[in-house]
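quick one, three chains, predict together pls
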Amino acid sequence: MVFGEFITVDTNGFSDIINITDKVQDVVHKSKIEAGIVNIFVTGSTASISTIEFEPALVEDYKEQIDRLIPHDLKTRHSETWGDDNGFSHIRATLMGPSIVVPISNGRLVLGTWQQIVVVDHDNRHRNRKIFVQCMGE
Amino acid sequence: MVFGEFITVDTNGFSDIINITDKVQDVVHKSKIEAGIVNIFVTGSTASISTIEFEPALVEDYKEQIDRLIPHDLKTRHSETWGDDNGFSHIRATLMGPSIVVPISNGRLVLGTWQQIVVVDHDNRHRNRKIFVQCMGE
Amino acid sequence: MVFGEFITVDTNGFSDIINITDKVQDVVHKSKIEAGIVNIFVTGSTASISTIEFEPALVEDYKEQIDRLIPHDLKTRHSETWGDDNGFSHIRATLMGPSIVVPISNGRLVLGTWQQIVVVDHDNRHRNRKIFVQCMGE
């Protein structure tokens, strides 16, 4: 069985983190799949999917550290060429990747207690993000 | 066909690396799947799954470099708020991600000769890690 | 349904980026799968798979930044032990991971308009890379 659909979330950019665990679980529930996997994939080249213990102190820590590694005011050829000032966003997204895959068991996501599925939006402005959630199994 | 189960490993923390290739191959063998994929997913928010040429010199190099990028003595809001001193562990885990997917062909993992599947435990203490290995295919 | 095969690409190393989107789409087309997923996995321990807006300015930016984070002239125990001078390549590959999974819908890859699937070759020399493209679905 295969069941997939887009979910959408409003984001703030600059690597802000949005918890999408409940939305992903809703798609898994609709799929009626009891055992299998779910692929969570963000379309666009300036965002990533990962997991985190979703609590506000850690979200701030993460944003501070990714900004130390790849600064938001980085001079890039991409920004100079295209004038959109988000070269740093692309580099962060390529480093972290656009997708994760989470197991489904007994119709539920297999996650740790303090582990949430998140979209990380690295762009330099508000976005409405489209994330494809593809469930496969039996 | 879908077949999955947890494997467990004892880990040392501070981004130590454990080779789980044989354990993953054992689950693939039990699944009797000849062609498909296997999703390797670590539950918890302070560990990652990746691949590496698993040899001791490189494991030390990796640990040194991840510690240079995200230091283990980093001051974090997370550690101050929750008192568990592992904010750095969470940030490393979110950067690297909790899962990979490896192809199965002829009943075997498709890997390079010098490429092993590993869990990287970023936490600041010994853990007994649970990793879900989900096989799908035919 | 499961359909997979290797694709090959010639690469330049030092984290150069090669666009493999069309080759992956060709395998998806051959699989005749309308809805499902495709797992793109690079064999070997010195390369990664990710997505990027594939344009030359950004490729140069990315190469410059990954070289700032994990320099190509890094002294490593791995290089000293094995004499192949590519310890930095391994560390970059483990950080970024060997695989991504992309959804298939209506027989097409689900990607953003400016989002391409790429292999990033971190090694320190030319390589002929083998990438397994495994399609699953119905």
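The CA atoms of residues 48 and 98 of chain A lie 5 Å apart.
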